Amino acid sequence: MDEIIKERALLSEERIGLIKEEQVLPEPYGEYFRRCARFLTEGSYEDLLPERYEESYANPAYSVSVFGTDMGRLLSFLAYELTNVIPFRAEKDTEEITKINEVFLETYGCFEQMHEDGEDIEKNADTLRSILYRYVFDYLDETVEKRIISQVDPSCDFALSIIKTADLSDLSYLEKFGEYVNEDTKKIAAFLNSLPEEDIQRMADTFTEGFRQGFIATGKELSKKKTVSIRYNLGFERIVKAEIENFKKLGLDVIIFRKALHPAEKKDLRRIGYYGELVNEQMDFDHREDSALFMDRAFVERKLEVLKNAYEKVKDKAAVYAGPAVMERFGEKQFEPVIKKECFALSKEQKELSTELSSRSAKIANEYIPADEISFTIISYPVPSIGSDFEKIFRETVRINTLPYEKYQRIQQEIIKTLEKGSFIEVKGLGKNETDLRVSLMDMEDKQKQTVFENCVADVNIPVGEVFTSPKLSGTGGILHVSQVYLFGLMFRDLKFVIEDGFVKDYSCANYADREENRRYIEDNILHGHETLPVGEFAIGTNTAAYAMAKTYDIFDKLPILIAEKTGPHFAFGDTCYSRTEDVKVFNPDGREIISRDNEHTRQYRNTDPVKAYFNCHTDVTIPYEELSGIAAVDEEGNRHYIIKDGRFAVPGTEELNDSLPDTGRQA
Length: 668
Known about the structure:
This protein is an alpha+beta fold. It has three domains: 3-138, no CATH class; 148-378, no CATH class; 404-660, no CATH class. The protein has 24 helices and 19 strands. Helix 15 (297-313) runs parallel beside helix 17.
């Protein structure tokens, strides 16, 4: 370790140790710094749990009630930032701990000086704002570079070494990661330990084979790649360990990096990397727009500059990166956040800057890790908090994840034949579901050699079961409505979109009493700061076995997008499924080329202005079968060729899909 860092670390720790007992500052500031100092030296995740959050300084509502709006928001930002000391302690990252200690001490010293000078501390929020802004801005070089290196360099092996060397039968290994570990995490690890090795290997094989097949299906060369990243939730290490060995046989070293910690690297509520249990979802939600503190033109340009420099330093490693292999989980307790006026909130101008930053960052990343040279895979498993039937649901999920793709490939080809009879697709809801949509399809020049629907089986996107297309935007419109859906860990009730010429025109939900709160909830968490988004995908899920599982165990509201999208028709808002890979030819098993790889918007801008072409998001919203009156391909004469009618598949050759669906005899 650098001697200067050692000295800085020692000095900061000694000073913080004294602050824990000091009575220098007037209240309530003195108590704030004493409590924060104790957290920096002794704190744990227990201090952040929901039952303690009401009077936590990390809670913006509490801090604002104590210190006033401006100062309260800033001190809450700082208190939240201090929580990163816990994972840094686990990594023994003295440099990062010292940075956190020093910004805390700089703030304390500033308050001391204001008090000595007789100034009104509450009226000097701009001074604190400047300190915190500089903390984020001045460390951008190191922050961004570390993050990029961790994503492409397998020598950054903190988590990997734990998985490889720990005795996974002793659950104390979970504490070594520095993430929050609750009973759910321990239970899933213990459950996996109880399974025979052949079951673990089968799950690992499904995962890694899906990744390999992704390269084959798109004609990409896996042999040129050397690394792959596994992203997952703690508790699944036994499966991950088997996956590491599988990837090694494919010639790939595994990279496992932690979710972003620094405010400059976070993006709303998205967590990319590995992480433990969410210690306090409301806390994370409250701080989702903390970037309002520093999101300005100078920050955007500086971050883009250092991002480019960081990639340039690791360009050789980036060039051999094969892509992400993602393990998700589902079944956690549903979270409906409380929206608080005390939280930082991005202004309209800042949202535009944030969107621009995302787009330009993605463009830079694509220069070093071209999307048309990598692939991915994604799979999901339940956790014990899903209920008393956890073990049954887990085993049923494993079965669903390994369904025979040949059967679905055959059935889905029959669906595609019927879909292609139409000049557009009609989707209508049943009963209280107000869905009434027209989906325009791209024109084909040669139906013998071309198709607009992909016959999607279980390769990158596990489990099996959907046909999808990138709709033609012009002419696509109507109402999309679902009674409730769970997206990004958040519940949306009575969610409704009005679509015109392929773009979202209006939207609403019923989570909150106030209409504007509902709109902002959608803007932040589905539109991701964009004023509108196009319909990037229309798909029909065919995995009625997954539907039956959800029905049997009453877990529709707990299914992840990954499985939910296979249990009915769904629409994705944002980029198409072929984002940044539109020029890579893709073929269905019948040999026909899938030509609907873009839409009018991406076609107009992707070769001249990629930042404008892409939205860097893709959010699926699924209509359950039971809320569906019908899906029909409507031909030029107005004839309807039904794919689904009254919630059941109607195409000859798809009858066995209905074996898992209830025969309700409902009328549209």
